[in-house]
């Protein structure tokens, strides 16, 4: 019996020692990293909430799509809307193509007119180059480029004095 009493009294001492060790290690761990653990738990909670709402939304979309696929009038309305959008886009494209053709036709007409003017000027004995640009120059009666006397270089001041080049010795 005495042996049983000794083992009983020894056992609680070991358990209390283990509890003290556990208390010290867990306490120091919480003291050191406690705020990080709290923030990590909060972050996990927020992420879990976001993911669960997204998962619910995805499930709801899947249910809605299966219901919409089953109802033929919804499918018909959707197909009609797509066909109307395609028709509208095709009309816009045709209008743009028509505008482009008109622009090309006007450019061709302008080129043809210039060629006719060039041919007429050649028949009259004039130069065929730049005949359309000369009337603007003829309207401005000013000094021509040949009558302007260029300035002599000696009248100009040098941009940089010659002192810099003379002071450098290579």
Give structural attributes.
mainly alpha; 78% helix; 170 residues
Question: Can you tell me about this structure?
Answer:
By secondary structure, this protein is mainly alpha-helical. It is built from 4 helices and no strands.
| Overall number of strands | 0
Order of helices and strands: HHHH
Shape: flat
Largest sheet: none
Instruction: Output mean pLDDT.
Output: 79
Query: Treating each run of at least 4 consecutive H or I residues as one helix, how many helices?
Result: 4
Based on secondary structure, the structural category is mainly alpha
Distance between the termini: 114 Å
- Beta content comes to under 5%
Rg: 48 Å
Taking pLDDT < 50 over at least 5 consecutive residues as the criterion, the unreliable ranges are 134-138
Question: Share of helix among residues?
Answer: over 70%
